[in-house]
Design brief:
3 helices; single chain; about 110 residues; mainly alpha
Length: about 110
């Protein structure tokens, strides 16, 4: 007794019936979380990361407003922390420059 050839199953092994993948649902706050991490790095002294955090925070906030993603509050925190980080970095640079001039290190 011969069995017909099945091109989808050439070795005659049947796999169990697979279930469809789960519905991914609504996109999560991934972009807002990334923006917040960049903003925190910007406060720590990496100025380009602070700028990236601000831009990503505004993009994430806009997506949350349109209902395309979640994380509206995290996005607001991201660009607020990013702006704060830039202000703190500029103040630190000005103070370091003035300290260098005051002690004769910079002329």
């Amino acid at each position: 007794m011969s069995h017909p050839y099945d091109p989808d199953d050439p070795f005659g092994r049947r796999s169990p019936v697979s279930t469809p993948p789960p519905d991914p649902g609504e996109p999560g706050p991934g972009l807002a979380a990334g923006a917040l991490l960049c903003s925190i790095a910007g406060v720590a002294g990496c100025l380009p990361a602070g700028f990236a955090g601000i831009v990503l925070g505004h993009v994430a906030h806009r997506r949350a407003q349109r209902g395309e993603a979640t994380g509206r509050g995290m996005a607001i925190a991201a660009f607020a922390v990013g702006y704060l980080g830039i202000v703190l970095n500029v103040v630190a640079l000005v103070l370091l420059f003035r300290l260098g001039v005051a002690h004769g290190l910079l002329r």
